[in-house]
Amino acid sequence: MQDRTIHNPISGERATWIETSAESGGKRTVAELEVTPGGGVPKHRHTTHQERIEVLEGEIEVTVGGIRRRAAAGEEVVLERGAAHSWRNPAPDRNLRFRGTMTPGHPGFELFLRVWFGLGRDGELRSNGIPRRLGDLSLLAEWDPSILAGPLRLLAPLLRWSARRARTRVRAAELIRRFGGAAPEGLQ
Questions:
Q1: What is the bridge-based pairing of β-strands 50-57 and 13-19?
Q2: Contact 2, 181 (CB under 8 A)
Q3: 54 vs 2, 31, 32, 61, 120, CA distance in Å?
Q4: Does pTM surpass 0.85?
Q5: Domain positions in the chain
Q6: Sign of torsion, CA 69 155 187 112?
Q7: What are the start-end ranges of the E strands in the chain?
Q8: Tens digit of each residue's pLDDT, the chain (188 residues)
Q9: Which one of 2.60.120.10, 3.40.50.300, 1.10.565.10, 2.40.10.10 gives the CATH number of domain 5-103?
Q10: What are phi and psi of 95, to 5 degrees?
């Protein structure tokens, strides 16, 4: 059985799977995330699902279309498909805890998070959270293309080529074996 809680020591994030895409029959992916002060994610865009953030503790700052908005415990933020956004914990001294729901479920995101956190745990990420190996970054971008927003999208052709190469060299199978999960359909 896979761990339900995973931790990334580089970013300080902890995620607990409440319901995976497989468990919900593809209807949703639900996870609770705990984020240390100042932690967060850069600009990204979900093209296949809506993201709902329910703040459980602390406060989150979400930027959508250049507009920043803060939400506190008990409040929700809904990010529609295609909306480029980023989020962070703005508090200097308090963790943020929120429940994120993706509708429909996103097995690629689940695999992305497991492998990315695992790479962090095993010292295979740089201090900025980027994998040390181009092939690993390429596989992460293939499993969850939302990370290719803004200027990073210009790297998409190179990353697609590198991901194919990493798969043929069995790196994808090794990462899945080490950190759990399953390759999304069509990306085995």
A1: unpaired
A2: yes
A3: 25, 11, 9, 12, 26
A4: yes
A5: 5-103, 107-179
A6: negative
A7: 5-8, 13-19, 29-35, 40-44, 50-57, 59-64, 67-72, 76-79, 85-88, 96-103
A8: 478 999 998 888 999 999 999 999 999 999 999 999 999 888 888 888 999 999 999 999 999 989 999 999 999 999 999 898 999 999 999 999 999 999 999 999 999 999 999 999 999 998 888 899 999 999 998 998 887 777 777 888 888 888 888 888 788 889 998 998 777 766 55
A9: 2.60.120.10
A10: -70, 155
Query: And the tokens for 68?
Result: 């920043």
Tell me the two tokens of residue 105.
Answer: 């479920």
Provide the token pair at 8. 């990334």
